[in-house]
Amino acid sequence: MDEMIRIRGGHKLKGEVRVSSCKNSVVAILPSVVLASEIVKLYDVPEIKDVEILIKLLEKLNISVSVKDDELTIDPTDICNVDLLDEDVMKLRASYYFMGALLGRFRHVRMYSPGGCNLGPRPIDLHLKGFEALGAKIKQDGNIIEIDAEELEGDDIYLDFASVGATINIMLAACFARGRTTIENAAKEPEIIDLSSMLNKMGAQIRGAGTSEITINGVSRLKGCIHDIIPDRIEAGTYIIAAAACGEDVTVSNVIPQHIEALTSKLEEMGVKLEQGSDYVRVFEAEELRPVDIITQPFPGFATDLQQPLTALMTKANGDSHIEETIYTERFKHCKELNALGANIETRTGESLIHGPTPLKGSDIFATDLRCGASLVIAGLMAKGETCIHNAYHIYRGYDSIVDKLKALGADIE
Ligand code: EPZ
């Protein structure tokens, strides 16, 4: 069934919107429970499709999960290491964290390769090289990956690229490896710090998360814990951009402003007036927007996940904005859809040029991936008339209650 979001644009947004917990943290935290021998409780878990799928995969491993409102109680005491040859594995990227977690706990994992948003090539060679450095042997047969190790032994691992996924997967596998593992050129994203602080509460010995060198001293057992997940910086950024595009006075709360500095400083450069508190960002109506240039980079640089939403706002700026995308050079499918609304965007591998200002006019458009969907929602709010965003399931993978949250701000959306 085509899930569709319909927006009648042109309404001013006003009021407060609370950001949910972080998708890219929780999708690593859920598979990491495989390492625990006792109950793990998670608070404030976002209601998103990726979480639903990961819960199903945990249940396949005979891990019981009970959900009460936004609280999850996960009991891994009867865990059973079965092959994860299930189509759910291919519905999201983060299923690959079961590789590191099951390898760490059982020294054996057999599962499908992960899926996830189609952003061009998304290899996992760095994850697999990391596992091999710890002593694992890898077999690949079509879409099935099998990883085995007699023993896992700590090692020094240098990542050719500061990959979020590889850093997390190696951390998970190394928790039970003998001796010390060092990850050099590690990714520094806040989600890595969140996962490491949860694993440390469980008894892991991880130091340096958030820096480019992480060390993991292996332990033999991890206990349970209670954990509050950090707020979602990409969801926060999406609402801040939406407010800059069509807000009158919007407060985005449950935010860690330091996590989105690259965005807020660019918005200020564009002429958006912001007020930042310790846990909120307030966005005032902008009179005129200036064009800006951005280059996407690993944290703390400008997040690739926010370049798509920001593109919608750039169509309003007085002049040409330029985006250089260094993480996923093909992450520009949203531009064709924005052009269908009246934008004037040129794209080439690794870059887009947004000629502004162009008024947008509602039409039927298609979400091709999660953040493309977010970009189209912002464009729909800006556009005159009615916009129908098809394939909205991409959006529900990562945005908790997006329709209700925008409705509460005064948007005409269903
Ligand atoms: C994570 O993906 C996020 N996903 C992505 O979120 C995000 O866009 C990305 O990090 C960058 O910030 C999750 O956390 C589940 P990477 P990940 O490994 O871990 C190359 C969203 O919209 N690379 O840091 O897959 C890769 O091709 C999304 O929420 C290799 O070459 O990203 C890319 O160019 C989508 N070999 C770059 O590194 C590898 O083995 C960064 O990828 C691994 C990565």
Describe this structure in words.
With 414 residues, the protein is an alpha+beta fold. The chain folds into 2 domains: 5-20 and 231-413, Enolpyruvate transferase domain (UDP-n-acetylglucosamine1-carboxyvinyl-transferase, Chain); 23-228, Enolpyruvate transferase domain (UDP-n-acetylglucosamine1-carboxyvinyl-transferase, Chain, Alpha-beta prism). Helix content is 32%, strand content 25%. It has 13 helices and 23 strands. The protein has a 4-stranded mixed β-sheet with strand order 21-22-1-23. Strands 2-14-16-15 form a 4-stranded mixed β-sheet. Strands 4-5-3-13 form a 4-stranded mixed β-sheet, covered by helices on one side. Helix 1 packs parallel to helix 3 (97-106) and helix 7 packs parallel to helix 9 (304-314). The longest helix is centred in the middle third of the chain and has 14 residues, at 233-246. It is globular, with a radius of gyration of 21 Å. The model has no long low-confidence stretch (mean pLDDT 96). Residues 24, 27, 93-94, 117, 121-127, 161, 163-166, 187, 304-305, 327-328, 370-371, 398 line the site of ligand EPZ.
